[in-house]
Each structure stands twice: as C-alpha cells, then as structure tokens.
Amino acid sequence: MRLYRKNCDKCNKPSFSSSEYGEWLCPVCGHDLTAQPFFDAVTFEQLYIKTLSGSTSLSFKGKEENENGITR
Ligand SMILES: [Zn+2]
C-alpha cells in the first residue's frame, strides 16, 4: 500500500493518506486539499494521478461520440 502526502497551502502542514480517491481535507485546519498535487510520502516525489470522476466521464463521452460516428 502506498502512502500519499499533500501540503496544505493554508496552514502549511503536511497531511498523509493511503487513498488517492475522494475528498481530501486538511486534518489541521479543514481546508479542502482535493485539488492539490499528490506527493509520495517516502520520496516526496510529485505524483500524477487521474481521479476517477474526471477521467471516466471524459472517456465515456468520447466513446459515445465515436460509436455514433462509426455507425453507417
Ligand atoms: Zn491546513
């Protein structure tokens, strides 16, 4: 299991979680960190993670259009 880290831009405190999905609120001040970039908790490397909600709706829309185009 991977541990993720985000930095709160309001109180500048790091917070940790093992889940990349759902809302992420700062445990210290309650600020919404969902849109903040993910960092690896061990290496502090920035990670690029596509959240479920954004990618699925986009690909579903594209697939629908593609199917319509293919039909005779
Ligand atoms: Zn905070």
Secondary structure elements and their pairing?
Layout: E1 4-7, E2 14-17, E3 38-40, E4 46-47, H1 52-70
Antiparallel strand pairs: 1-2, 1-3, 3-4
The structure holds zinc ion.
What would the keywords be for this entry?
single chain; alpha+beta; four-stranded antiparallel β-sheet; 1 helix; 4 strands; 18% strand
Write a structural description.
The protein is built from one helix and four strands, in the order E-E-E-E-H. With 72 residues, it is an alpha+beta fold. It has one domain. Strand 3 and strand 4 (46-47) form a beta hairpin. Residues 54-65 have low confidence and may be disordered. It binds zinc ion. Zinc ion (ZN) binds at residues 8, 10-11, 13, 26, 28-29, 31.
Radius of gyration: 17 Å
Strands, count: 4
What is the distance, rounded to the nearest whole angstrom, between the alpha carbons of the first and last residues? Answer: 47 Å
> How do the strands line up in the largest sheet?
2-1-3-4
Order of helices and strands: EEEEH
- Domains (count): 1
| Secondary-structure class | alpha+beta
Mean pLDDT: 81
User: Uncertain spans, ≥5 residues at pLDDT below 50?
Assistant: 54-65
Bound molecules: zinc ion
Judging from the principal axes of the Cα atoms, what is the shape? globular
**What is the overall number of helices?**
1
Percent range of helical residues: 25-40%
Biggest sheet architecture? 4 strands, antiparallel
Report the portion of residues in β strands: 15-25%
